[in-house]
Amino acid sequence: MTTFVIGDLHGCLSPLERLLDKVHFEPGKDKLWFVGDLINRGPQSLATLRFVKSLGDDAICVLGNHDLHLLAVIHGIRATGAKDTLDEILAAHDLDELTHWLRHLPLLHHDTELNVTMVHAGIHPKWDLDMAMAMATDVEKALRSNKYVEFLQRMYGNKPAKWSKKLGKHRRRRFTINAFTRMRFCTKKGELDFTLACAPAKAPKGLVPWYAVPNRKPIDGRILFGHWSSHPGFAVSNVVPLDRGAVWGGSLAALALETGVTTTVDSAQ
After folding, report:
1. How many domains would you assign to the chain?
2. DSSP 68-85
3. pTM (2 d.p.)
């Protein structure tokens, strides 16, 4: 059995199909992990969502910011943007079923046997693994509850930027969502900064990638993340970026966890 971790899909099903052929994926034997942002911006959002859902126990996916955006659009909390490609999903006969499945996905997945943790954007530098798992579980319960629309209504905003255990429930959950699904850069004190999406080397003085914040809480094992298409295919030891910008004409990557081999396909082929 091989566990393949796939970068951000953004509705690019055709490259995914070619990638799975290239790595000789065997349903029922191998496993697929997806780092989130299954949909939006690409041409096959509905088909991609249905495909990943159809994989059942062969797949594990964490939520990304675009997946949450869809939930907010469905309930009238957000409007679709000019670059969104969600109309086909919104008109789908199985929208309710897809929505139910999507909002029951986790924010964080940790595999004890493989000693690997997968998130969409990152793990806040002030959190160890136990804290990160607790914060993820809190938001997951809110998304799966009967009051999840109320949670979505309070989800958006860049503040608070600074982590504190004293944050109230709604501010804590917003911070959690931002850390897991939107974070790229932080100040050296660990405050979230959403002004930039450039490669780490182009950041101004005072901003660093979340994983490079001084005195970051240590987390044993590998951390896998996506979300950052301008990021090179490497970070620091045990922190593995997987978004290669497939929807922007880049490539789609699959990391085989057991061997460490990364396989890519050109999204334009």
Report:
1. 1
2. HHHHHHHTTSSPPPTT--
3. 0.98
Confidence at residue 269, expressed as pLDDT on a 0 to 100 scale: 57
Tell me the residue range of the domain where 240 lies. Answer: 3-266
Asked if 99 contacts 152 with a C-beta cutoff of 8 angstroms, the reply is no
Give the number of C-alpha atoms closer than 13 A to the C-alpha of residue 204, restricted to the C-beta side. Answer: 4
**Which residue, among 83, 84, 20, has the nearest Cα to 52 in the 3D structure?**
20
- Other C-beta atoms closer than 10 Å to the C-beta of 17 total 14
Residue 193 has which token pair? Answer: 């900064």
Distance CA 34, CA 12 (A): 13
Please report, for the domain that includes residue 140, its CATH number.
3.60.21.10
**Chunked mean pLDDT (size 10), the chain, 269 residues:** 98 98 97 98 98 98 98 97 97 98 98 98 98 98 97 98 97 98 98 97 97 97 98 94 97 97 89
Q: Answer yes or no: are the C-beta atoms of 179 and 186 closer than 8 Å.
A: no
Q: CB 32: neighbour CB atoms within 10 A?
A: 21
